[in-house]
TrEMBL record:
One of its GO terms (molecular function) is aminoacyltransferase activity. Gene3D superfamilies: 3.40.630.30. Belongs to the FemABX family. This is Vancomycin resistance protein VanK. It comes from Kribbella jejuensis. Keywords: Acyltransferase, Cell shape, Cell wall biogenesis/degradation, Peptidoglycan synthesis, Transferase. InterPro entries: Acyl_CoA_acyltransferase (IPR016181), FEMABX (IPR003447), PG_Glycine_Bridge_Synth (IPR050644). It comes from the Bacteria. GO terms for biological process: cell wall organization; peptidoglycan biosynthetic process; regulation of cell shape.
């Protein structure tokens, strides 16, 4: 097989995405309109005249060297990861280098390891276990091969110890949607089932709406309480405007006696749905608005024929004193599974420029942590 890579239109890219069972929403052409600070292009892999792969590339220029870019394919590209990767990635590198890229960063949508909810719960309870990789996992042979092939071809792993970095998290928590609503509900732990019933008993009302300002106000409150930097309202307005063109995004708002107590955003592509963002009030936590939002999104994902509902990133830390453990415990209650992906990898195409960019990013990160 001899593949070539060339630009494709957003319409051709969208047709290709629609023909797949599932694709990350970060690899849909509409995502380019969300990341307005990046230059973007859609690329296609052709076997003779047949389109067999596609990818959304986000270009980030180098400070003071704007003619060179980091070419980023988040959770992509959409290619056959089970075969010989050199046949797919070599023509990508040739095209991007010829068009000014100093490096490629990609995140294969391929799982390497899986842990059950019960294992994660046991790890948190065990004082001798501090990290998820210490627990026995079910390895995925495809993920193992992809990792080996990337390393052999000179790609450099960009996976931080805590699972979070400048890119997208390597560790995620996912809920397989096997069977009916009742089947999924039975797979949840007792606390989750009790909280869902509690929300209904307390009269929590779920609305699928478009009041982004109300959601954002609650999201900023959540950020202040939980000590993270919130995105501006404009980002969510842009995200909804872009993803609604392909009918991929919904806003869920939970009210109790007319007061907004929780909110969440779900994105869906094909047979996979993602919990993208969430917010909750500090008051009235006992009415369980967050559980009500999650259950509404899970039910809608089941109704849409999804195979997987992703609760997105977790850290691999299982130490009981770690501040992230509470989030992991919340997600574990759904009865799903923790998964480790191959992670993000860089291929330097112009080593001198890549080293300069790496030094710049390191200095910026140090300044951010010291401020």
């Amino acid at each position: 097989m001899t593949l070539t890579v060339r630009p494709i239109s957003a319409a051709v890219h969208l047709d290709f995405v629609q023909a797949q069972r599932s694709v990350s929403f970060l690899q849909t052409p509409s995502w380019a309109h969300v990341k307005t600070e990046w230059r973007s292009e859609s690329l296609g892999w052709y076997d003779d005249q047949w389109l067999v792969g596609a990818g959304l590339v986000l270009h980030r220029p180098v400070p003071r060297l704007e003619r060179f870019t980091l070419a980023y394919l988040p959770e992509g590209p959409v290619i056959d990861w089970t075969g010989k990767l050199d046949e797919w990635l070599r023509p990508l590198a040739m095209y991007l280098k010829a068009n000014g890229a100093f490096a490629i960063r990609l995140g294969p949508p391929v799982i390497t390891d899986t842990w059950t909810a019960a294992q994660v719960k046991e790890g948190i309870a065990d004082p001798n276990v501090t990290r998820l990789p210490q627990m026995p996992s079910v390895p995925d042979p495809v993920g193992t091969r992809v990792t080996e092939q990337l390393r052999a071809a000179g790609w450099l792993p960009q996976n931080p110890e805590d699972g979070f970095g400048t890119g997208h998290p390597q560790y995620n928590f996912e809920l397989p949607l096997n069977g009916s609503e009742d089947d999924v509900l039975r797979g949840m732990n007792q606390q989750w089932r009790r909280n869902i019933k509690k929300a209904a008993k307390e009269g929590v009302e779920l609305v699928v709406g478009d009041d982004l300002k109300a959601f954002h106000d609650l999201y900023v409150h959540t950020a202040e309480r939980d000590h993270f930097t919130p995105r501006p309202l404009r980002y969510f307005e842009t995200m909804f405007a872009a993803l609604r063109t392909e009918d991929r995004i919904r806003l869920y708002l939970a009210y109790h006696q007319g007061e907004l107590v929780a909110g969440a955003i779900m994105v869906r592509v094909g047979t996979q749905a993602w919990y993208a963002y969430g917010a909750s009030a500090t008051a009235k936590r006992e009415v369980r608005g967050s559980n009500a939002c999650q259950w509404a999104m899970i039910r809608d994902a089941i109704a849409a024929g999804c195979d997987v509902y992703s609760l997105r990133g977790i850290t691999p830390t299982l130490h009981a004193d770690d501040p992230h453990v509470g989030l992991i415990q919340f997600k574990v209650g759904t009865g799903g599974q923790a998964v480790r992906y191959v992670g993000e990898w860089d291929l330097p195409l112009r080593p001198l420029v890549y080293r300069a960019f790496d030094a710049y990013m390191t200095q910026r990160e140090r300044r951010r942590h010291s401020s």
